[in-house]
Amino acid sequence: xxxxxxxxxxxxxxxxxxxxxxxxxxxxxxxxxxxxxxxxxxxxxxxxxxxxxxxxxxxxxxxxxxxxxxxxxxxxxxxxxxxxxxxxxxx
Length: 91
Description:
By secondary structure, the chain is an all-beta fold. The protein is 0% helix and 62% strand. The protein has a five-stranded mixed barrel with strand order 2-3-4-6-5.
C-alpha cells in the first residue's frame, strides 16, 4: 500500500492492491447511486477489511483489484477500482 496524495487537513489517499474475499452488497441502488460493500484480504484482520464503493462494479469474489482509497472510521472508502486479474473459472 502506498500513499499517492497527502493533504494537510484531509485523510491521505492510498493505492492498494488486494483480493476481494466476499461481497455483502453488490450494485444495490440507493438514491440513484450504486453501492457496493465488500471485504478485501488484509494482514490485520483475518476475516477481511470492509470496503465501501459508490458506483457500479463488474468485480467478483476472488478477483485481484487495485483500489484508490482512504481510511475513515476503520472502513475503507474506495474512490476507484481497477480489476487486475479475474478469478479463473473451473470448467
